[in-house]
Amino acid sequence: MKTVVLFLIFKGTPAWLGSRKFITSFSQYQPVPFSGVRPKRISPQNPIPPSSFFVRNMLFYKYLWAIDLPAIQRRLKLMKLSKILERLEYTCLQGTLDQEIEEVVADSRKAKEGSLFICIRGAVVDGHTFAKSVAGQGTKAIIVEEPVEVPEDVTVIQVKDSRYAMALVAAAYYDYPGDKLRVIGITGTKGKTTTTYMVKSILENAGYKVGLIGTIETIIGDTVIPSANTTPESLLVQKYLRQMLDEGCDCAVMEVSSQGLMLHRTAGFTFDIGIFTNIEPDHIGPNEHTSFEHYLSCKKMLLRQCRIGIVNRDDEHYEKIIDGHTCSLETYGFSPEADLRAVNPELLTKKGVLGISYDLQGLLNFPVEIDLPGKFSIYNSLTAIAICRHFNVSEENICKALKCAKVKGRIEMEKVSDDFTLMIDYAHNAMSLESLLTTLREYKPNRLVCLFGCGGNRSRDRRFEMGEVSGKLADLTIITSDNPRNEEPQAIIDDIKTGISKTEGKYVEIIDRKEAIAYAIHHGQPGDIIVLAGKGHEDYQEIKGKKYPMDERVLIREILEEDAKKKA
To answer: Are 240 and 275 in contact (CB under 8 A)?
Structure first.
């Protein structure tokens, strides 16, 4: 084969293309042989496997390349500071905007040469105090709310709100992925998690590729990332949206918390659809919201950051929720005034499964059946349907997807018997436990059995309250261990018993959670509903500062397998 030497010359080639950094990075790619076929195009969707092949002076031997320059630039993450700041109001206190930025960080430990460091005022730490140290680490650009003392060669950008600035900077840095995806934001006190998974299920069933950002996890294609916050910091939000776009996603659905809105984590783009499920007093206290009014004011910010707003018409605070909205508005609920209405609801009980059915009327008209219990499941499904209507999803696809929609740790039914129903739920405080048990009472079970524990190093009042709720509403309470952390499990159980003692409720105590679950299964009676509460999606148990693997689904399988071996 004749040797082909190809010189790559581009009109308007940026300076970074010939840099040592670019050549070093590009040397990681495996060249594509030229054999008369169309050369392979390099992109994030079509990466080149690493190799030891080294590129010198941009000479390629025996190979022909087709290069996606924007994709390579994004991979290297090199961008002029002036470009990053293009949508931001700011004052340049010193330095030049001609700096080349390699990455954007708000953690001083990650700052290095080529970084843009954003000084964030946190609840515990103020990023401004690290300005001098990050400059010493090679950082040449810093965003601040107030002047800082750094060397003259460091560019200092002053803004009114560094968190808001971070969101706009992140959007620019990742090339505005929120403008290129259809993004759905869901806020509210209850129902966010379940609704996001319902929406994802319906849209994927209709052929869309959907990314998800939520309380439990972030899902990007086949990648699943456990979540630390319901709504991540803006740098992560924009990074995830970019990854979704690069993975070929059509849309993204995300849970939007009041904290996320208050701290501008979702600034920098406009949601195509914004959902407000409901609101109740919650997250009020130190480092959260000062009052219910403040909580509500943060939540309703979503209706000024979306094109279409969809709101629960039945919520008692409906008028306050929609006050000041700037989006086109749609409603759902049981109210005759709702645009999308549920009528004729019926509880369904099948072998080991609880569900509900209703007739949908208004903007769409057809019967709906879901294998999830309770009135709140109707609201969640109405929300999902209202969203998917804007994607022109067929009635058949909606009904099919709702039938199989399942959310890890949210009234998640585990089939262990045809005689009784067993479910896993994240209810971990008195309010959520009371709501769950009250809902299940409507199914008139033979017995309602509630298994739960409480976390250590948390308010003892929660233990008293949950014990009292379970004692009042459950026929049998199985008290066990949750995440004892640095406390003794028995001490936590004793506090729960104090709460139960205010009632006439029956209980047993079994410290080991697997043994407690086995007891619940082995003593299940026909018509029982058994709830494993508190852990939900969690797959660990925290003891003395260490997390140990513990997934209730795994425990159930182990118990059933052990039972089968004993019978064999």
So the answer is: no
CA separation for the pair 534, 453 (Å, rounded): 7
What band does 504 get if pLDDT is binned at 50, 70 and 90?
A: very high
Long-range CB contacts (< 8 A, 24+ apart) of 514-521?
514/555, 514/558, 514/559, 516/451, 516/478, 516/480, 517/451, 517/552, 517/555, 517/556, 517/559, 518/559, 519/478, 520/422, 520/449, 520/451, 520/478, 521/416, 521/417, 521/422, 521/556, 521/559, 521/560
Residues 30-56: tens digit of each pLDDT? 343 333 334 444 444 444 444 333 333
Residue 58, domain extent: 5-75
Give the H or E element holding residue 518: helix 513-522
Name the residue with higher pLDDT: 77 or 300. Answer: 300
pLDDT tens figures, 446-499: 999 999 999 999 889 999 999 999 999 999 999 999 999 999 999 999 999 999
What is the per-residue DSSP string for 15-36? GGGGSHHHHHHHTTBPP-B-SS
Pairing of strands 251-255, 366-370: unpaired
Q: What is the mean pLDDT of the chain?
A: 87
State which of 404, 434, 450 marks the end of a domain. 404
Q: How far apart are CA 153 and CA 86, in angstroms?
A: 21
Alpha helices in 413-505 (DSSP H): 430-441, 460-473, 489-500
Q: Name the strand (E) or helix (H) holding 342.
A: strand 340-350
3-state DSSP call for residue 373? Answer: coil
3 pLDDT tier (thresholds 50, 70, 90): very low
- How far apart are the two ends of the chain, measured CA to CA in Å? 68
Q: Quote the CA–CA distance of 455 and 463 in Å, as a whole number.
A: 9
Please report which helix (H) or strand (E) contains residue 244, including its range: helix 234-246
State phi, psi for 491 to the nearest 5 degrees: -65, -40
Q: What is the pTM of this model?
A: 0.80
Residue type, 336: P
Q: Are residues 355 and 423 in the same domain?
A: no
Distance, CA of 453 to CA of 467 (rounded, Å)? 9
The sign of the torsion formed by the CA atoms of 306, 272, 253, 206 equals: positive
| Boundary-marking domain end, from 368, 383, 404 | 404
Residues 282, 230, 422, CA angle at the centre, nearest 5°?
80
CA separation for the pair 370, 141 (Å, rounded):
53
Kindly tell me if the per-residue pLDDT of 164 is higher than 60. Answer: yes
Kindly report the CATH number assigned to the domain that includes residue 458: 3.90.190.20
